[in-house]
Specification:
The structure is a single chain. The protein is α/β, with parallel strands linked by helices. It is built from four helices and eight strands. The strands form two sheets. A six-stranded mixed beta sheet has the order 2-8-7-3-4-5, with helices on one face. Helix 2 packs parallel to helix 3. It is elongated. The model has no long low-confidence stretch (mean pLDDT about 80).
Length: about 170
Protein backbone atom coordinates (compact mmCIF):
# COMPACT_ATOMS: atom_id res chain seq x y z
CA UNK A 1 0.00 0.00 0.00
CA UNK A 2 2.76 2.39 0.96
CA UNK A 3 4.67 1.48 -2.16
CA UNK A 4 1.63 2.26 -4.36
CA UNK A 5 1.29 5.66 -2.68
CA UNK A 6 4.92 6.55 -3.42
CA UNK A 7 4.48 5.37 -6.96
CA UNK A 8 1.43 7.63 -7.38
CA UNK A 9 3.27 10.55 -5.78
CA UNK A 10 6.24 10.16 -8.10
CA UNK A 11 3.92 9.94 -11.13
CA UNK A 12 2.16 13.18 -10.19
CA UNK A 13 5.45 14.95 -9.49
CA UNK A 14 6.69 13.95 -12.92
CA UNK A 15 3.81 15.85 -14.53
CA UNK A 16 3.90 18.94 -12.28
CA UNK A 17 6.69 21.36 -13.22
CA UNK A 18 9.12 22.08 -10.42
CA UNK A 19 9.06 25.48 -8.74
CA UNK A 20 12.44 26.43 -10.17
CA UNK A 21 11.19 26.34 -13.80
CA UNK A 22 11.46 29.58 -15.76
CA UNK A 23 8.40 31.79 -16.06
CA UNK A 24 7.25 32.44 -19.62
CA UNK A 25 6.02 36.01 -20.19
CA UNK A 26 3.01 35.98 -22.49
CA UNK A 27 2.39 39.74 -22.70
CA UNK A 28 4.32 42.74 -21.43
CA UNK A 29 2.06 45.69 -20.70
CA UNK A 30 4.79 48.10 -19.64
CA UNK A 31 5.14 49.86 -16.30
CA UNK A 32 2.40 49.17 -13.82
CA UNK A 33 0.55 51.48 -11.46
CA UNK A 34 -0.97 50.91 -8.09
CA UNK A 35 -4.57 49.82 -8.29
CA UNK A 36 -5.71 51.37 -4.99
CA UNK A 37 -6.21 54.94 -6.30
CA UNK A 38 -8.41 53.61 -9.07
CA UNK A 39 -10.61 51.75 -6.62
CA UNK A 40 -11.08 54.59 -4.15
CA UNK A 41 -14.84 54.65 -4.65
CA UNK A 42 -15.69 54.70 -0.96
CA UNK A 43 -13.47 57.59 0.03
CA UNK A 44 -14.55 61.20 0.35
CA UNK A 45 -15.17 62.98 -2.90
CA UNK A 46 -15.41 66.55 -3.98
CA UNK A 47 -18.72 67.79 -5.30
CA UNK A 48 -18.77 67.73 -9.11
CA UNK A 49 -18.31 71.13 -10.73
CA UNK A 50 -21.36 72.96 -12.02
CA UNK A 51 -22.08 72.20 -15.66
CA UNK A 52 -21.32 74.95 -18.16
CA UNK A 53 -24.23 77.34 -18.89
CA UNK A 54 -24.86 75.66 -22.25
CA UNK A 55 -25.53 72.34 -20.48
CA UNK A 56 -27.75 73.78 -17.77
CA UNK A 57 -30.65 74.02 -20.21
CA UNK A 58 -30.60 70.40 -21.37
CA UNK A 59 -34.18 69.19 -21.64
CA UNK A 60 -35.49 72.71 -22.23
CA UNK A 61 -37.00 72.84 -25.76
CA UNK A 62 -36.30 76.56 -25.94
CA UNK A 63 -32.58 75.75 -25.73
CA UNK A 64 -32.85 74.16 -29.20
CA UNK A 65 -34.05 77.35 -30.82
CA UNK A 66 -33.54 78.73 -33.30
CA UNK A 67 -32.92 75.77 -35.60
CA UNK A 68 -31.42 77.00 -38.84
CA UNK A 69 -30.10 75.37 -41.99
CA UNK A 70 -28.44 78.02 -44.15
CA UNK A 71 -28.97 77.24 -47.81
CA UNK A 72 -32.34 75.55 -47.26
CA UNK A 73 -35.78 77.14 -47.63
CA UNK A 74 -39.33 75.95 -48.29
CA UNK A 75 -39.81 75.27 -51.97
CA UNK A 76 -40.51 72.83 -54.77
CA UNK A 77 -38.14 70.04 -55.73
CA UNK A 78 -37.99 68.12 -58.98
CA UNK A 79 -37.72 64.40 -58.07
CA UNK A 80 -34.52 62.71 -59.21
CA UNK A 81 -32.68 59.42 -58.94
CA UNK A 82 -29.71 59.02 -56.59
CA UNK A 83 -27.72 56.18 -55.08
CA UNK A 84 -27.10 56.35 -51.33
CA UNK A 85 -26.20 53.67 -48.78
CA UNK A 86 -29.05 54.61 -46.41
CA UNK A 87 -30.44 52.09 -43.96
CA UNK A 88 -33.62 54.17 -43.51
CA UNK A 89 -35.19 56.97 -45.53
CA UNK A 90 -34.74 60.49 -44.12
CA UNK A 91 -37.05 63.46 -44.55
CA UNK A 92 -36.24 67.12 -44.01
CA UNK A 93 -38.95 69.50 -42.83
CA UNK A 94 -39.31 72.93 -41.28
CA UNK A 95 -41.82 74.49 -38.95
CA UNK A 96 -43.53 76.35 -41.81
CA UNK A 97 -47.06 75.73 -43.12
CA UNK A 98 -45.85 73.97 -46.33
CA UNK A 99 -43.78 71.47 -44.31
CA UNK A 100 -46.61 70.79 -41.87
CA UNK A 101 -49.04 70.18 -44.74
CA UNK A 102 -46.48 67.88 -46.46
CA UNK A 103 -45.93 65.96 -43.21
CA UNK A 104 -49.67 65.53 -42.75
CA UNK A 105 -50.17 64.39 -46.36
CA UNK A 106 -47.29 61.86 -46.24
CA UNK A 107 -47.60 60.75 -42.60
CA UNK A 108 -48.74 57.17 -43.24
CA UNK A 109 -46.24 56.63 -46.07
CA UNK A 110 -43.40 57.84 -43.81
CA UNK A 111 -44.47 55.43 -41.08
CA UNK A 112 -44.76 52.55 -43.56
CA UNK A 113 -41.22 53.03 -44.89
CA UNK A 114 -39.70 53.66 -41.43
CA UNK A 115 -38.48 57.16 -42.26
CA UNK A 116 -36.65 59.37 -39.77
CA UNK A 117 -37.14 63.12 -39.90
CA UNK A 118 -34.90 66.11 -39.38
CA UNK A 119 -36.43 69.40 -38.33
CA UNK A 120 -34.14 71.78 -40.18
CA UNK A 121 -35.84 75.13 -39.57
CA UNK A 122 -37.79 76.34 -36.53
CA UNK A 123 -37.85 79.71 -34.80
CA UNK A 124 -40.34 79.40 -31.95
CA UNK A 125 -41.72 76.95 -29.42
CA UNK A 126 -44.97 77.09 -31.41
CA UNK A 127 -43.03 75.72 -34.43
CA UNK A 128 -41.73 72.84 -32.31
CA UNK A 129 -45.19 72.09 -30.94
CA UNK A 130 -46.79 72.16 -34.39
CA UNK A 131 -44.20 69.76 -35.81
CA UNK A 132 -44.50 67.42 -32.80
CA UNK A 133 -48.29 67.34 -33.22
CA UNK A 134 -48.07 66.71 -36.97
CA UNK A 135 -45.38 64.03 -36.50
CA UNK A 136 -47.68 62.02 -34.23
CA UNK A 137 -45.12 59.35 -33.36
CA UNK A 138 -42.68 59.75 -36.24
CA UNK A 139 -39.09 60.20 -35.02
CA UNK A 140 -37.91 63.73 -35.79
CA UNK A 141 -34.58 65.17 -34.68
CA UNK A 142 -33.87 68.91 -34.57
CA UNK A 143 -30.68 69.56 -36.53
CA UNK A 144 -29.16 71.68 -39.25
CA UNK A 145 -29.02 69.90 -42.60
CA UNK A 146 -26.86 72.36 -44.51
CA UNK A 147 -24.10 69.78 -44.99
CA UNK A 148 -26.53 67.13 -46.22
CA UNK A 149 -28.14 69.64 -48.58
CA UNK A 150 -24.77 70.66 -50.00
CA UNK A 151 -23.73 67.06 -50.67
CA UNK A 152 -27.09 66.17 -52.26
CA UNK A 153 -27.34 69.50 -54.08
CA UNK A 154 -30.74 70.39 -52.69
CA UNK A 155 -31.87 73.81 -51.50
CA UNK A 156 -35.48 73.19 -50.52
CA UNK A 157 -37.57 71.32 -48.00
CA UNK A 158 -39.77 69.41 -47.29
CA UNK A 159 -38.04 66.52 -49.01
CA UNK A 160 -37.82 62.74 -48.70
CA UNK A 161 -34.37 61.23 -49.23
CA UNK A 162 -34.39 57.54 -50.01
CA UNK A 163 -31.77 55.04 -51.03
CA UNK A 164 -32.44 55.58 -54.73
CA UNK A 165 -34.53 58.77 -54.99
CA UNK A 166 -35.00 62.30 -53.69
CA UNK A 167 -38.57 63.54 -53.90
CA UNK A 168 -41.25 65.64 -52.31
Amino acid sequence: MQRAFYHLLLSVMAWVPPAWCAVTVIDELGPTRALAPLLDVFGEREAPPDPPPSMQRVGDPAALLPIRSPGLAPGVLQARAISLPLTRPVFLIGGDAKSLRWLSDHHQQLIDIGAVGMLVQADTLDDLSAVAAAADGLPILPASASDIAAVLKISVYPVLIGRDRIEQ
